[in-house]
Amino acid sequence: TISQATLSITALDQTKVFGTGDPQLEYTAEGFQAGDDESVISGTLERAPGEQVGDYPIGLGDLAVNANYQLEFQGAVFTIVSSRLAVINNLPERETPWSVEPQLPEMLTVLTEDGQILEVAVDWDASGLDVYSSGLYTITGDLQLADGIQYEEYQKAYLDIQVLKKPAPEDLTLSHQEFDPAATEHFFEIGNLIITDPVDANHQLELVAGALDNKYFEIHDRMLYWSSAERVAGQTTFSILVRVTDRDGNVLEKQLDLTRNRIDLNSLTVYNTFSPENDGTNDTWGVPDLRYFSGVRLQVFDRSGERVFYTENPDIRWDGTYQGKTLPAGAYTWILEVTETGAKRMGILNLLRK
Question: pTM for this structure?
Answer without folding.
Answer: 0.71
